[in-house]
Amino acid sequence: MSDRLHPRPAAATDPAISRRKLLEFFSASPILASGAVGALATLLESGASGALAQSYDVLRQAPVMNGDLIAAPAQALNVFDFEMVAKKELPPAHYGYLASGVDGDETLKANRDGFEHIRIRARRLIDVRKIDTSVKIFGETWASPIALAPVSSQGAFHPDAELAVARAARVKGHPMILSTVGSSAIEDVIKERGAPVWFMLYPTDDWAVTEALVKRAEKAGAPAIVLTVDRQGGRNTETLFRERRTDTRTCTDCHTPGFKNEVSRKPMFDGIDVDRVTNLYGTGMTWDYVRRLRGIVKGKLVLKGIVTKEDAKTALDHGVDALIVSNHGGRAEESLQSTIGVLPEVVAAVNGRVPVLIDGGFRRGTDVLKALALGATAVCVGRPYVWGLAAFGQPGVEAVLNILQREFETIMRQAGATKIAEITAASVDRA
Ligand SMILES: Cc1cc2nc3c(=O)[nH]c(=O)nc-3n(C[C@H](O)[C@H](O)[C@H](O)COP(=O)(O)O)c2cc1C
């Protein structure tokens, strides 16, 4: 981590301290009378979500920038501001791993482009001062429909890894999914999150290992096991390979090659005998595997990576409790299909029987509204929170989530929706 951005003094990232500094600045200013400073203090303390039009008040933005990159989370105008800082902070191979899609990254781009074909229909003269963004999933109320997608190996992005993410998710109650190949153990993540997290499962080709992983996650309190089904075919991550060529470090100093070494570094495999395992991704998994898994999962079983109506229907026939429409953020197949584009066919096939979540390219509050209007129950974000993590640790993740939530609340109001149920097919039209 570079000295320019790190160490990160608490003063630079704590919003309360930023507000105080701003007030000190204005108190000393001849342009504002003392009464105005008092009014400003009230405004700044009122917080974003209750503030309506003030949520984008220029005075809320930290006024100073040093150079092209933001130097503190409070300076970010949108989630993209974190990406370039993450790029600067990370070794090229780690940034390449995060950024990469597959082949020419066309599906990665398609995920973003898909949102441009959907327009939002603004509604007027509705009292939207108070809005409620909560959603109910599996009988549990989430404060926000914006959840954190499972992202592997977060120690590659920040030393505090998933623990920093869990602490950030806790602040405003964002749900979180932990990867099998995360850098942190589920017990620690749940402790930091202050609530159960879902566990994302990569099945190995040794059933005993799969069983042990599920048992451990459920014992820790995970209410849902998320089986990722889109990594069975292998992949060509060219952007990663290209970036890695420019990395002068010796990768094998930290990563011993070979599958067994890879998993044995991951805390979720601690105490599990992985001797018979030869693969984590291409395991020849079929629907029989889903049936077998259904038999051992006590809580909810979720499939992540479904992108067709056929597979959605088959999943329901196998007793699956929810789907996540996903192409792994353009990191699985180079299909050129955006997830927002295939969402309607999956939603139609499911026909309200189970929740349908979605991820892939969500970068704006408007993207979230579009997905909910097309029938998604909630959305997950991947890379944006990792940009925040890599750039500034926990405060960076918090800022990314706050920006997405603030943007989402703003567009909800503009679409005339005071609660999630009021975001409907009539909230959008398709170009
Ligand atoms: C660096 C990285 C690692 C990922 N690791 C996993 C993983 O371990 N398991 C999984 O199901 N998905 C994984 N994903 C995919 C995400 O869960 C999610 O589907 C994707 O990031 C969403 O797209 P977005 O990054 O455009 O938001 C990973 C994504 C990235 C960028």
Derived from helix and strand composition plus strand pairing, the structural class reads: alpha/beta
Globally, the shape reads globular
Characterize the largest beta sheet: strand count, sense, and whether it forms a barrel: 8 strands, parallel
Please count the beta strands (DSSP E, at least 2 residues each): 12
Bound molecules: flavin mononucleotide
Number of helices: 17
Distance between the termini: 44 Å
Sequence of strands across the biggest β-sheet: 4-11-10-9-8-7-6-5
Q: What do you see in this structure?
A:
Helix 14 (339-350) links the parallel strand 9 (322-325) and strand 10. Helix content is 41%, strand content 11%. Helix 2 packs antiparallel against helix 3, helix 4 packs across helix 16 (383-392) and helix 5 (92-99) packs antiparallel against helix 10. It folds into 2 domains: 10-68, no CATH class; 93-430, Aldolase class I (TIM Barrel, Alpha-Beta Barrel), CATH 3.20.20.70. An 8-stranded parallel sheet has the order 4-11-10-9-8-7-6-5. A two-stranded antiparallel ribbon has the order 1-12. A two-stranded antiparallel ribbon has the order 2-3. With 431 residues, it is an alpha/beta fold. The chain starts with 9 loop residues before the first helix and ends with a strand. Flavin mononucleotide (FMN) is lined by residues 97-98, 111, 149-152, 179, 181, 200, 228, 304, 326, 328-329, 331, 359-362, 381-383.
Give a quick precis of the structure.
The chain is an alpha/beta fold.
List keywords for this structure.
431 residues, alpha/beta, TIM Barrel, 2 domains, two-stranded antiparallel sheet, 17 helices, 11% strand, binds flavin mononucleotide
